Amino acid sequence: MKRVTGIGGIFFKCNDTGKVRDWYRKHLGFKTDNYGCNFMWKKADNPEENGFTLWSPLKNETRYFEPSVKEFIINFRVGNIGELAKILKTEGVSIVDEVETFEYGKFVHILDIEGNKIELWEPNDEEYKKIAGDNILS
C-alpha cells in the first residue's frame, strides 16, 4: 500500500499571523487569506488533476500542535488514511486522535520517534477547490 503521496502543508507558529501573511504577500508574492497560502500543482500520475500544498502561519498560543512542543507541523497527503492508521497502530506508532472527516478530506495525527506531531491527510481536492475559490495560488 502506498503511504505518503506528497506534502499537504507546512504549519508554523508566529507572533502575529496577519503581519507574517502580509510580509509574505508583499515580499514573496503569496496570495494569502486567513489560513495562509495554497500552492497548486498537477498530479504526476494524473496531470488532469490538481493538488495543492498549504503554507500556514498560526498564533504562538495555538494548542493545535500539542502534544508536540515543536514550533511546526508538517502535513502529509496520503491515499487511504483509515487503512494507513490501522497499519501504523500495529507498527507501534503513536496515534494522537481518531480519523476525522471534513468536507475537504480526512485527518489523523501521529507522533514520530522524537515526538514531532505529524498530520496525515486524505484530501478531497475537488471539494477543496470549491471552498478555496480565488484564494488558491497557482
Gist of the model:
The chain is an alpha/beta fold and 138 residues long. The chain contains three helices and nine strands. Strand 7 and strand 8 (117-123) form a beta hairpin.
Describe the structure in your own words.
- This protein has a single domain (4-137), classed as 2,3-Dihydroxybiphenyl 1,2-Dioxygenase, domain 1 (Roll).
- The protein contains three helices and nine strands.
- The chain is 22% helix and 43% strand.
- It has helices at 17-28, 81-90, 125-132; strands at 4-14, 37-43, 46-59, 72-78, 94-95, 100-102, 105-111, 117-123, 136-137.
- Strands 1, 2, 3, 4, 5, 6, 7, 8 and 9 form a nine-stranded mixed β-sheet that branches.
- Strand 2 (37-43) and strand 3 (46-59) form a beta hairpin.
